Amino acid sequence: LAQVEVPSFPDTETTLAEHLEAQVGPAAPDPATAFIARQLIGLLDEAGYLTAELAHVAASHDVPLAQVERALAVVQGLDPTGVGARSLAECLALQAREADRYDPCMAALLDHLDLVARGAFPQLKRICGVDDEDLADMLAELRGYDPRPGLKFGGGEGAPVVPDILITRAPGNGWDIQLN
What is the pTM assigned to this prediction? Predict the structure, then answer.
């Protein structure tokens, strides 16, 4: 018998967008929120952060800002925890909430990440109202969080596309065209 060599295909990695979109249906309370959540997923950067302004998303889809905020809450509730955050502090806060570690002291610490970076521990202890041991525990907890949760996934062909031109309906019968 002759042996036939079977070509090997490269492993296809699941992209962050694909991973999140697969979770949206069950997580969204209604189809309209699911639609906006998928739009937000398309606006995430490779680290999983949302760089677009919610007001702009609401205006471009002609939906109330409250609906976009509900959709963002859906995205932020997906796995991996921390995606959809608009800042490092928000990303870490989402992870702290999931770990049931988000309390007023942790919130104060996350509000002062600049002091953490500078190593201003005496000032942080005063702001957070904690002692050396508690601050050390809080910092150890922070080190366990992932500041870029989206990087676990491949970029692939499903990577978000950032448009060069934004077109929205203007008041009246016109269109508003802007460079992004």
Answer: 0.76
